[in-house]
Design brief:
The chain is α+β, with helices and mostly antiparallel strands and 63 residues long. It is 30% helix and 10% strand. The protein is built from two helices and two strands; from the N terminus they run H-E-E-H. Strands 1-2 form a two-stranded antiparallel sheet. The termini are far apart.
């Protein structure tokens, strides 16, 4: 029984967890802290124009 559940889980997960967004899919609401220390949510920015999210690894860190 446990083995069957694991097989089902492995077959079902890629469709639910690893599905890549398609062009035109709405983004889920989320909040991020900006470099100015303020927290911004997607919901409060929608309608204010184009939104660009950029990520830069911290400078001079190993790896």
């Amino acid at each position: 029984m446990r083995f069957q559940f694991l097989i089902w889980l492995l077959l079902a997960l890629p469709g639910f967890v690893f599905a890549a967004p398609e062009i035109g899919d709405p983004a889920p609401d989320f909040s991020l802290q900006g470099s100015d220390g303020n927290t911004y949510s997607l919901q409060e920015l929608v309608g204010s124009g184009g939104i660009v999210i950029a990520f830069f690894p911290k400078a001079f860190t190993g790896g």
